[in-house]
Amino acid sequence: MAETSLRKEAAETVDKMDLSRVSKTSAIGRRRFEIPPVKRWEIESIVKTQLGNFVGGLFRGIGMGVGFTLLTAALILIMGLIVSWNLPYISEFIARVMKMAEFSMHGGTAVK
Q1: At residue 77, does pLDDT exceed 60?
Q2: DSSP for 45-98?
Q3: Which of 21, 23, 36, 108 makes a 20 to 30 Å CA pair with 74?
Q4: pTM to 2 decimals?
């Protein structure tokens, strides 16, 4: 008996409530979580951006590889030039470094 009176009381309370605010807020909540349709130009823009970044990264990597190779070749040439000047300690050190580099380039076999 107590349950039925509580249900009636709850129903009367709900009837008295101003539900106009509830419907407005729920409509706002629905709009907030609604995903708008994606337009074709937005997809093309995203693809164009991603493709541009990918190609840019490829060229940046190739450029770094070529640049590092040229820099290393120039450094080796300069080191060879310093060795030919026969400076006492520097020449010996650079000659050892160049022999180690040649040794490792030929797979660990002695170079004559």
Answers
A1: yes
A2: HHHHHHHHHHHHHHHHHHHHHHHHHHHHHHHHHHHHHHHHTT-HHHHHHHHHHH
A3: 108
A4: 0.46
